[in-house]
Amino acid sequence: MISINNVTVTFSGTELFQDISFVINPKDRIGLTGKNGAGKSTLLKVITGEQPVEKGSVTIPQNVTLGYLPQHMELPSGLSVIEETMTCFEDTNSLQDKVDKLTLEITNRTDYESESYLKLVNTLSEYQERLELFSDTQNQAKAEVVLKGLGFKQSDFQRMTSEFSGGWKMRIILAKVILKQPDVFLLDEPTNHLDIESIQWLEDFLKNYSGAVVLISHDRSFLDNVTKRTVEISLGKIYDYNAPYTKYLELRQERRKQQIAAYENQQKVIKDTKDFIERFRYKPTKSNQVQSRIKMLEKMEKLEVDLEDNSSIHFKFPPAPRSGQIVVKAQNFSKAFGEKVILENVDFELQRGEKVAFVGRNGEGKTTFSRCIIGQLPFEGELKLGHNVSIGYYAQNQDELLDMNKTVFETLDEIATGDYRTKVRDILGAFLFSGEDIDKKVKVLSGGERARLEMAKLLFQPYSLLVLDEPTNHLDIRSKDVLKKALAMYDGTLILVSHDRDFLHGLAQTIYEFKDRKIKQYRGDITYFLEKLKLENMRQFEAQKIVKTKQTLESEDAPVSNSKQDYMLKKEIEKNARKLKSMVDKSEKRISELETELSEIQDKLSKPENQTDMTLFQQFDKIKADLDLEMENWEKASKDYEDFICKIQQ
């Protein structure tokens, strides 16, 4: 569908890509991976045409549409959330113009059998189908579904976009890209500003989408759940694997082992051959054999081992000073911004050595509570730090906290004291800042480089409590793994605000969910929390169904006693159970009938005189297909019945 052909891109005299080629097929699910700075975002811009190329080309069929989400984009002001989202449907006007133009052209054509005429008809059909998807009566409903999936509430729809933070604005842009339903999604870090629930919604959407998806993400779980193919960018080359991220890592390791083994074997053959040539070069009796081996070496295609970029950050946090047993304690804690209440009457206690995670939808108070803990925001109620608690804080908006006009070296040198002044260059080197990099201004650094610089600042003083707000947002997967190991070895107390499931897995032993102005504790890791959350959502859904049934019964004209309400509710549940059980029984009966018919056909086919009766074979194939379909129906009906029984018993 889209072909990247021998593309070369150069920045400042250095080749970022060197003759790279690959194809994006319909329904592909591709994860672009590679270190920060490898060129992933640039490759998406090459595909969209925003980035020119020195050599090569990108071929995109004329009728293929792209939906591109960059890492950074500004929204115009002056519109509400729903109004701005609905602007994505403005393209339907140009689509209607194309339909009208093609319709007129086809009307005036008479070469009905020609290839060009058939091509016009097919193109018109595609445009008409796409236009049907964007009827005005459905657009608003579609927009609301997508906005809610990405975390917006109904009450947010009429608020002006200017009232929202950059992260929420990016969600609006993502919603617009989704609603355009392009043939190919090109998504650059789509999960950076999403919470766990929104990420799971986006995962489900992309997995079931009819078009192709090419995405950049440093979220390992997201990549594994969505992609089926991984394209790695490393040192100017690409390596294409038909596997999701975790499997790709295994295949890459296997490929490199095979490369090294083949290279070493060839080097041994070359050495032995050269030794033979040198030994018998001047012996006439061996001249033919010597010449043969010389020609063999000249014709031999030399194997090479792909260069591997092994650079990664490497560090560990200083030992934590010992604090009191209780590190943070809050009682009747409340926080509001004007009339908007964020948290209300919250109790919270954090013990020394605990590693916990704050999770929940954006806007529920995770960052706000963190900033209250470190003393940046006022609050109501009680919030105290324990004895000898010193706090190291990593802010989600580190871009705003760094001085853009200072150099990398100056940023760390100004906070270094005592013996740490001699370690500035070593620490910068551990975070991949070396040589001329340390003299760069902060304003020219990438998001990942700024994140590493901000993280490096935490190593210049030992802290008993680390509060890290979205520390992985701009880190590549390899850097995140190093950070995770360093935090696992950290002997102090840790609060993580994060939506990265893979990063949290095995690191945080307790999860605190922020929801509806409260904080709920889950004693377990992120996997346990997600399982409990799924179960609670299911129970809540069933409870809502029962409430609706009660409301329907209570809305009848005649007053109904409590006992009669219970009786009628019980009857309604029993009726639904009988209906589901009847579907199972009906399916089982049909399966039995089909199996009997299949057995009878098999008996007939076993007789020699029927071996050439094609009608019998056709009957056999039809009954077998009907039986397979009915087995699927039975499995679904049985599961629905079992799930219903389990739910009403809870």
Short description:
This protein is of the alpha/beta class and 650 residues long.
Structure description:
Residues about 555-560 have low confidence and may be disordered. Helices cover about 45% and strands about 20% of the residues. A six-stranded mixed β-sheet has the order 5-6-7-3-8-9, sandwiched between helices. Strands 14-15-16-12-17-18 form a six-stranded mixed β-sheet, sandwiched between helices. The chain has a three-stranded antiparallel β-sheet with strand order 2-1-4, with no helix packed on it. α16 (about 475-490) links the parallel β15 and β16. By secondary structure, it is α/β, with parallel strands linked by helices. The longest helix is centred in the C-terminal third of the chain and has 44 residues, at about 560-605. The radius of gyration is 32 Å and the shape is globular. The chain has helices spanning about 40-50, 80-85, 90-105, 115-130, 135-150, 165-180, 195-205, 220-225, 245-280, 285-300, 365-375, 400, 410-415, 425-430, 445-455, 475-490, 500-505, 525-555, 560-605, 615-650; strands at about 1-10, 15-25, 30-35, 55-60, 65-70, 185-190, 210-215, 230-235, 235-240, 325-335, 340-350, 355-360, 380-385, 390-395, 465-470, 495, 510-515, 520. The two termini are about 50 Å apart. It is built from 20 helices and 18 strands.
